[in-house]
Amino acid sequence: MAIATYKGFSTISNNFGSSKLTDTDLIKRDLLNHFAIRKGEKLMRGNFGTSLRDLIMDPLTEETKQLIIEEVNAVINNDPRVRPEEVTLDEYENGLQVQIVLRYVIDNQVENLLVRFDRPDNAAI
After folding, report:
1. Which residue(s) pair with 113 in the sheet?
2. Are 83 and 69 in contact (CB under 8 A)?
3. Over the Cα atoms of the chain, what is R_g?
4. What distance in Å separates the CA atoms of residue 63 and residue 113, rounded to the nearest whole number?
5. Ordered structural domains, the chain, with CATH
6. Are 13 and 24 in contact (CB under 8 A)?
């Protein structure tokens, strides 16, 4: 059994099981948490987070696509444990989905991460 490089925990979807996370699972959870925080929500760190949840309500123009991809890359580049290899953006019936090809620095492993940003129910599009 390999010794974990990164250790942490998450209470999301643990169903009263273990809340310990290590290495790539912890990195993915940290990235997803970062995507879920709106800019200005984190105390004493006003620039932390993204405006992605606000951008999903905008028409998906080339400019909006570029802003979303830039924000996704900024989140990933903010974490020294991963590097973005590729970021693609698509619409789906409930919002936007971003597919990210991540390279983990600790073991040079590459993995796809799919992040969905749903529009609020009954939102005018």
Report:
1. 100
2. no
3. 16
4. 23
5. 20-118 (3.10.450.40)
6. no
Residue 67 has which token pair? Answer: 């802003």
Residues with Cβ < 8 Å from 115, sequence gap 6 or more?
A: 32, 35, 72, 97, 98, 100
Evaluate if pTM is beyond 0.85: no
CB-based contact 39:47 (threshold 8 Å):
yes
pLDDT digits (tens, 9 = 90+) for 57-81: 888 899 999 999 999 999 999 999 9
Residue 28 sits at the vertex; the CA angle it makes with 114 and 22, to the nearest 5 degrees, is 145
Sign of CA dihedral 22, 46, 97, 75: negative
Q: Which residue's structure tokens are 């983990």?
A: 104
DSSP-based three-state secondary structure for 112: strand
pLDDT tens figures, 25-62:
888 988 998 888 888 887 787 788 888 888 888 888 99
